[in-house]
Amino acid sequence: MTRKERLMATLRGEKVDRPPVCFYELDGLTQDPNNPDPYNIFNDPSWLPLIQLAAQKSDRIVLTSVGFLNTPPDPLEKLTKKDIFTNEKGALCTSTTIQADTRIFTERTARERDVDTIWTLEHLIKDVDDFKEWMDFPQAEFGGEVDVESVLETEKALGDSGIVCLDMADPLCVLASLFDLGEYTVTALTEPELFHTALAKVSELILKRTEAVARALPGRLWRIYGPEYACPPYLPPRLFNEYVVQYDKPIIDIIKKYGGYPRLHVHGNLNDVLDAIVSTGCIGLDPIEPPDQGNVTLKHVREQCGEDFVLFGNLELSDIETLNSDEFEQKIITALEEGPSKSGNGFVLMPSACPIGRKLKESTYENYKKMIDVVERVYS
């Protein structure tokens, strides 16, 4: 089978020659070792062998955010000021301010040269009063055309080596990321009526955009991230049903209406919310972290979610970066024993995340290579 055929058959629950092996965000296409940007960690020579391995051997799933062309003006634009600058430590910083009726909202972020992530130093919403005023912000209107060409170009570049995965935040993720985590959890627990009103507001635009994208780009894999904000220990399971299932199920229904394959991205403790996850109608789940990062095994998830559910996981990034070759090989073998359905389908071997440091250790590269080698050996 080609790598694309293997992945699509896995999504459809069909027979495959072997489980796909995906390196998650590391796809060998969107990491550019030739880009001299000082904030591009992938131009360090230590990354090149892994980027090439991902391109040549992994079953590539390229996460793709779909844009819109010719959209209506953002009503917040005239109230917003954004400053981008480099601080004394060389970090790329952004300061965004929004002038509201009675107060100024501020968000600050920073991106270090040697770490591939953006840190939020100050969140936009500080307390319930901010949240209530944020609720009165003018809502963007839906409009414009789906930027189909950018997705088609990615698929052309992939050829038979993989597929795209349309990537989107759910309504809870949009809201939760506005707060500091502690303030978010308190607000979500103590202000459910306000939170539902905000989720409904956010959902209105998300549903319209999802409908347009799913119609224009049918039959693709999707990743919906954000539900982990309602997992224990952040919130009790009953609020997972209220804040995730209630608002994500309509999204998932739209995607499936156009032949798409929606999977939920949920880190952390899943045991108490597995039934709720299945009730959304999603076709799969990632990254299914084992103890101690999570609290479930692949075997348990397979038993709870059924033979038709597609499992993506469950190798911890920390294990890839710290375990020796023999120890990591055992993790791979366990995943291959527990993840596939009884018929041997419905499983993608995949890490929970991607390294974010500029210097990639040789042992980390060897453990990524071990994923390919073990699967090819077991299924030869």
Oligomeric nature of the chains? single chain
Structural class based on helices, strands and sheet pairing: alpha/beta
Calculate the mean pLDDT score and round it.
Answer: 97
Indicate the low-confidence ranges by residue numbers.
none
What CATH calls the topology of the largest domain is TIM Barrel
N-to-C series of helices and strands:
HHEEEEEEHEHEHHHEHEHEHEHHEH
How many domains make up the coordinates?
2
Give me the count of strands. Answer: 13
CATH class of the largest domain: Alpha Beta
**What is the C-alpha radius of gyration, as a whole number of Å?**
21 Å
Distance between the termini: 13 Å
Could you say which overall geometry the principal axes of the C-alpha atoms support?
globular
Strand order of the largest sheet: 1-8-9-10-11-12-13
The biggest beta sheet is recorded as: 7 strands, parallel
Strand content: 15-25%
Helix content: 25-40%
SS element count, helices: 13
In the CATH hierarchy, what is the architecture of the largest domain at level 2?
Answer: Alpha-Beta Barrel
